Amino acid sequence: MIFDLQYTQQNLYSSAGLAMIGKLLHGINVERQFKRFRLCTKSPYHHFSDRDIILSFLGLTCCGTPYFEAVDFFKNDQLFTKSLGLTRLISKASLRQRMNHLALKGHQIWSALDAINFKLLKKYATPLPIDNTDLIPVDFDVTIMDNTESHKEGVEQSYRPKIHGFAPILTNIGRQGYLINHQFRRGASHSNCKGSLEYIIASMNFARALCPQEKLLARFDSGNDADRNIITLSQFKNAYFIIKRHLKGVNVKRSKDTLIQYVINNYSAKTVLPNNTIRYFAEMPYIAGYYNQKDQLVKVNCRLVLSVVELNNDINNGQPLLIPYRSLHMWRTNLPKNEYSPKRVIDLYKDHGTSEQFHSEFKSDLDLERLPSSKFKTNQLVMGIAQIAFDLLRIIGLEAIEFALFNPKFHYGRIRIKTVINKLINLPVLFFRKHRRWTIALPRSNPVAVVFNYLYTTF
């Protein structure tokens, strides 16, 4: 059917979800945090305060448009400005310039962003433990942000072939994947590069402050396999770790073949998988140590969990192999031996792969894969604001799941950030002033309007 087109005098807006964002920020008294770090004052040279710049870009990021040119989309959007407590919106050129200026302030800005994120998670988030355990996961992992064929500062060859970009490390907590910390890095930075130990300590302190009584389980890939990290993590009370052991860490005395034979001869459990594949599980004590600045040996005891996968048939055609193919996998952990068998430790580490999905949501759903600025410091500030936006959208999505507002027949572990943006943040509404009060009129024909109404009232 062919339709006629016409313009209307009614004020239609497609950013209704920012009203929930504004209400969440109001609930943690975000203005107090900005005043605490002196970000609310306007200088004689600028019409907008630092607070206005941060909230403007935060609103853009929550709408899935974290780039400076997107300001033009909301130039006449009163709902955008009033939801975030702005008098008017800055131009795209001024936003880029001010973001470059803010990025150079350093500690003041980062302290404010960390305080806002902590207040937000402390009030609205409850990190959930791993299923059938009382351990709250704290996942550390590096993710590659592909910026190939760009000339941005810090774009370098990453550990993935033919991919140039950045290599930030992200830290998520709980089964829900709240983002509690990140460190923006150049593309060629190693997972355990300089500053990693300080980052791990800061992230664990953040997690401990967020969950003061619960047991924490820090999980790392083999890129962070280092004795110094193990000894540092062992100093946190009521906290455990699982670190994938890199095969290059196997010393000469205990060669790979020797360890494989040890596992087969001393396994504590084994499972037979399809296609005649056998998996053996074993463990042995391990002493991690390093020499500190005073040339003193610091060491700690932990467990080395081993697994050998034995293939007796070809995985492609099922033909029996004359000589079985065996592969070795290792992890280091301080989980109690009487409660967590080697097989259970490995199963706990497998759940670490879920953090890759959180990283995918952070990069693709928020459209952060290719960062907007050519300056490294500015992109670092963009990542800091995006961290708060990610947690805001995660809180909204999980609140909708808890009360089965989307589809009661299906159980959702979480709703993707992209779904929250498309259905709740970009909900089309009427926005007008009546009897000296601003009003949002929700469409009755849209079933998501009921969800929006409930969430806004709840927050």
Note the topology.
Elements: E1 12-13, H1 18-27, H2 30-36, H3 50-62, H4 78-83, H5 92-103, H6 107-124, E2 135-142, E3 145-146, E4 156-157, E5 164-166, E6 169-173, E7 178-183, H7 196-210, E8 215-220, H8 227-234, E9 239-245, H9 256-265, E10 269-273, E11 277-291, E12 297-313, E13 320-333, H10 342-350, H11 354-365, H12 376-402, H13 417-425, E14 429-434, E15 437-441, H14 448-458
Parallel strand pairs: 2-8, 8-9
Antiparallel strand pairs: 1-14, 2-6, 3-5, 4-5, 6-7, 9-13, 10-11, 11-12, 12-13, 14-15
Top keywords for this entry?
Transposase Inhibitor Protein From Tn5, Chain A, domain 1; 14 helices; nine-stranded mixed beta sheet; 459 residues; three-stranded antiparallel beta sheet
Would you give an account of this structure?
The protein is α+β, with helices and mostly antiparallel strands and 459 residues long. It has two domains: 12-110 and 376-458, no CATH class; 125-365, Transposase Inhibitor Protein From Tn5, Chain A, domain 1, CATH 3.90.350. 36% of the residues lie in helices and 22% in strands. It is built from 14 helices and 15 strands. The chain has helices at 18-27, 30-36, 50-62, 78-83, 92-103, 107-124, 196-210, 227-234, 256-265, 342-350, 354-365, 376-402, 417-425, 448-458, and strands at residues 12-13, 135-142, 145-146, 156-157, 164-166, 169-173, 178-183, 215-220, 239-245, 269-273, 277-291, 297-313, 320-333, 429-434, 437-441. A nine-stranded mixed sheet has the order 7-6-2-8-9-13-12-11-10, sandwiched between helices. It has a three-stranded antiparallel sheet with strand order 1-14-15, with no helix packed on it. Helix 3 packs across helix 5, helix 3 packs across helix 12 (376-402) and helix 7 packs parallel to helix 8. The radius of gyration is 25 Å and the shape is globular. It starts with 11 loop residues before the first strand and ends with a helix. The model has no long low-confidence stretch (mean pLDDT 89).
